[in-house]
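To whoever is covering the structure queue this week,

Two jobs came back overnight. Logging them here so there's a record in the thread.

Job A:
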Amino acid sequence: MNSTVKKCYTKISLHDQKSDLAYWQTQSYQARIAALEELRRDYQRWRYDAQSRLQRVYTIVKR
C-alpha cells in the first residue's frame, strides 16, 4: 500500500486566534480533568524525574 498524507496548514494572525478558553468550555468536565491529570503527570516526570505513587504517611504513637 502506498498512502500519501496531504500537508495543509492555516496561517492566522495572533489577534485573530481563537481563545483556548472557548475550546475548553465546550469540553466535558471529564475531558478537562483527564487533560489536567495528563499535564500534571508529564510535569512531575519532567521536573522531578519521579514515578507517580502514593505519598507515605507515618504516625508516631507514644506508648
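Job B:
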Amino acid sequence: MNSPTQAESLVFDGRSVIDGKRVNARSGDTFACISPVDGSQLAEVARCSAADIDAAVAAARAAFDDHRWSGLAPAQRKKIMIRFADLVQKNGDRLALTETMDMGKPVKYARAVDVNSAANCLRWYGEAVDKVYDEIAPTPRTALALITREPVGVVGVIVPWNYPMIMAAWKIAPALAAGNSVVLKPSEKSPLTALLLADLALEAGIPAGVFNVVTGFGPEAGSPLALHMDVDCIAFTGSTRVGKQIHVMAGQSNLKRAWTELGGKSPNIVFADCPNLDKAVEAAIGSIFFNQGESCNAPSRLFLQDSIRDEFLERALKLVPAYAPADPRQASTIMGALVDKIQMNTVLGYIESGRTEGATLLAGGEQVLTETGGCYVQPTIFAGVTPDMKIAREEIFGPVLSVLSFSDAADVVRQANASVYGLQAGVWTSDLNKAHGVARALRAGTVHVNQYDEDDITVPFGGFKQSGVGRDKSLHAFDKYTETKTTWIRIDSPV
C-alpha cells in the first residue's frame, strides 16, 4: 500500500480494546482523528476517561490474578509472542499506511522501519522468555537462597505520537513476555495502530484482559492511569514536562514504579579529522530530517570544528532539496507531514525565534503545500547559532537543525553537556583516543562514533539527566517489569 487511492480504502475502528472486546467510551464521547497528510477525518475515536481506565485496569488485574497469562510456561508465552510478531509482519502494509495517515511519516519508512522494528521487538522478547535464568546466591551450606524474577503485575503504558508502533512494542513486548498484564494509552494524535496491535494480539492468542488499549487525552485518560492505585508500574515516553508529572503522580498514588523516556537535544560533533566528511554530512542531514525531525534522539545540535565548518555546510546544503516535503503516501517520499497543526505551529514558532535571536537561516523556514490541507514544513538549517539561543536549548521536535562552532575537544564537550538533556550524542573523528575520551566525557545514554543512530534491539536505549529514567530494549528492559525476590531456605543437613 503506497498510494492515496489505497489509503482512501482503509476503514478505521476508533473504539478501545478492553477485556478482549472493542468498546466505546462509557460516556459515549468521541474525538475526531484528523490526518496531517491532507486534513481529512480518519475516524471517530473513543474519548475515554477515568471510568474506562478503571474497567481496563480491573480487566488487567483479573487476568493477572488468575494467571491466565503469567501462569503459562515461558515456552508457551514465547510461541504466542512470536505468533503476534508474525501477524504484525503479515499485516504490515495496513499498519504502515495507517501509521502514515495517522501521523504523517512516509509510508516507505513506516513499512521498512516501524513495522519491521515492532515485529522484531515482539519476536526478540518472545525468544528471550525461556532463555532468562534466575539465580542462586553463594550462601553457606546451611542455606539455599533463590533469587527469582516475578512479573510486577499490572503495567500502565503511555506512548507518544512520533513512533506509535515502535514505542508501544518497546514497552509491551518485555512487559508481556515477563508475564504482566498491560493497559496501553496511545497518544490522542496517533491512536490507530495501537488499536490494531491489540486486535492482532488477541488473534495471536494473548488472552482477553492481558493487553488492553484505552484511547483518549492525557488529562482524561493518561492521568487516571498514572494515578491508579491498582497499577503497579507506569512506563511513559514523551516530553520531559509530562514525564515529571508522571513521577509526581506515581508518588501521589501507590508509589508505583515509574519509568520515563523523555526529551533530547542531542549534540552531533564533527572534528576536523573526521575520517569521511561526506558520510558525516549525510548522517547529520539524514538523521535530523528523518521522521520530519520528530525524534527524541534527533541530532538537532550540530557542532562543527572551525576549520571545516564552511566546507561541511556547503556539502550539507546540496542534500537539503531531496528532503522537500511531499505526500507521504507516495513510495518516493522521504519527508512527510508533521503530526498536526499544533505541532506545525510550534515548529514555525521556533523558526521565528531563530530569526529573531540572530541566527542565520541557510535553508527552509517556511510552511509549504498549504493547498493540501496538510501540515508540511521545509527542512530548515540555522548557522551562527549560539548556546544561549532558544533553538539551541529547547527540543523543537521538527525538521530544524542548529549549527554551532567549536575550537577544540574541551570546548565542545563543555558546550554539548550544557543541556538539561542527555539522550544521545555523536562524535566524528579518526583519533581513537579522542573518540574514547570525548565519548566518556559526554553525559548521554548513547554515544555514536563515526555514525549516527545505528541501532539494534540488543542494546539499551535511554538517557541521562532530564532525558529520563530506565532503559528500553535489550535484556535490561526486563528490570523495569519484574520484581526481584529472594527466597532464603534454611538447610539443617543430617550429613
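Note for Job B: The chain has a mean pLDDT of 97.

Please reply-all if you pick these up so we don't duplicate work.
Q.
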